[in-house]
Amino acid sequence: MSVFPSIRLGSKGHYVRLLQADLNGLALNYNGFALDGYFDQKTSDAVKNFQDRFSLNRDGIVRNSTWKVLVDNVLAVQKLLNQNGYHAGHADGWFGAATTAAVIAFQRAHGIYPSGIVDPRTRQALFNPHDKDHYQDRPTSAALESLNPHVAAMARRFLALTREHHMDVRIYTAFRSWSDEDRLFAQGRWTPGPIVTNARGGDSYHNWGLAFDAAPFENGAMTTDVSKFRLMGQLGKQAGLQWGGDFKSIVDYPHFQDTFGLNTWDLLNGVRPPGE
Ligand SMILES: [Zn+2]
User: Fold this and answer.
1) What's the CA-to-centroid distance between 176 and ligand 1, angstroms?
2) Which of 32, 142, 168, 178 supports an S-S bond with 136, CB 3.0-4.6 Å?
């Protein structure tokens, strides 16, 4: 592990190929980089997203700290596949041909599209096979009741603050179904429109009742005034929420969340926030 070199934008060769195979296998190749051993901009973006997910320094440089978390995640997948009788080969942290074939066999056996990558549905089936919460079967809703109770309480506090500021703020999405999330992920990739998310179904906090989207309305219509969104964002933060306007990857003005320090892989792996 300690012998892995630091690599970054412009690097090439064996370790870049390893990096790309691991990111791709863990379903982090949102932007379609080639597994060619060239550390290009798309590879760098995927690295930064991975670093965000694990609260690592978001600099796009793959040094020991990032290597360790990445390889550990691949090792965990390989060990589980092997334990379940899907032969991923020697657990070595390299998401190569044997691991990909094992994932495909696992997906076929579980009625999941056989992509060979550990997408969120595959992750849940592998890490949390006895899931009793059925998040992936719940419908999209704008109701606060569809949220985690702590997040719902913060949302009520937030709405009260906006009324004190004489704003007409409305929540238009709270829980989002996993299939609706998949449709959003497709947009800008294989359906028309701009890219709006890097999250597949199961990989957004909306899919766990930990996020909602809101907008200021004026004369019955959603405002286009960015300063109103900024004020709304400040009030959400006052209520204890994280605001999407502060995001570094895709800035998301209507978005509020509380993650309880969990990333979506924790949630898929079966870890639950307080109150559930
Ligand atoms: Zn959102």
Assistant:
1) 9
2) 178
Centre of ligand 1 from the C-alpha of residue 109, in Å: 33
Phi, psi of 212 (to 5 degrees): -145, 160
Structure tokens at 269: 């792996």
Cα dihedral 125, 140, 30, 222 in deg (nearest 10): -170
Q: How many residues does the chain have?
A: 276
Which ranges of 61-130 does DSSP label H, i.e. alpha helix? 64-83, 97-109, 120-127
Could you tell me the CA-to-CA distances from 21 to 96, 98, 104, 120, 274 in Å, in that order? 7, 12, 15, 17, 35
pLDDT-flagged residues of the chain (< 50): none
Å from CA of 213 to ligand 1 middle: 5
Cα-to-centroid distance, 187 and ligand 1 (Å): 15
Nearest alpha-carbon partner for 197 in 250, 242, 129, 261:
250
Rounded to whole angstroms, the Cα distance separating 140 from 148 reads 14
φ and ψ of 148, to 5 deg: -50, 140
pLDDT digits (tens, 9 = 90+) for 121-174: 999 999 999 988 889 999 999 999 999 999 999 999 999 999 999 999 999 999
Neighbouring C-beta atoms of residue 196, cutoff 10 Å: 12
Domains of the chain (ranges; CATH) run 14-127 (1.10.101.10), 136-266 (3.30.1380.10)
